[in-house]
Amino acid sequence: MVKNTGRPGYLQIADDLRAKISGGSLAPGTPLPSTAQLAEQYDASLSVVKMAVGILRNEGLVIGQQGKGVFVREAGEVPAAGDLASEVNELRSTVRDLSERLARVEEQLATSTARRSGRSSR
Questions:
Q1: Measuring CA to CA, which of 35, 53, 78, 89 is 20 to 30 A from 95?
Q2: What is the pairing mode between strands 69-72 and 62-65?
Q3: CA separation (Å) from 67 to 29, 86, 93, 99, 119?
Q4: Helix (H), strand (E) counts: the chain
Q5: What is the pLDDT of residues 48-70, one digit of tens each?
Q6: How far apart are CA 10 and CA 42, in angstroms?
Q7: Using CA of residue 36, residue 42, residue 45, residue 51, what is the dihedral sign?
Q8: pLDDT in tens, 66-76
């Protein structure tokens, strides 16, 4: 579960998963739980979980296999050229998700502000 420590949730999740990998509870070749399962486990949004997994990908701890999932990388395994494309696609997806969320928040803020300014002019 993500705690209100001031440290971003995605970093807390990445830290926890990293500890599980280094501690052996997530062994090389083991698939990570799905994004939805991790979101439920950590009580976080899908985009926060995707960011956490993205960090582990950048660190070379996990590898994504299109259509199969994300797996703990074997020790000494060299990233394939296709992994970069997969990481870029995941980053694009995360940015798109965050952009959509930001647009909704901005829309709600604009609506709320318009309502308030309409009340004060009466």
A1: 78
A2: antiparallel
A3: 16, 11, 15, 24, 52
A4: 4, 2
A5: 999 999 999 988 899 988 888 99
A6: 10
A7: negative
A8: 888 999 998 76
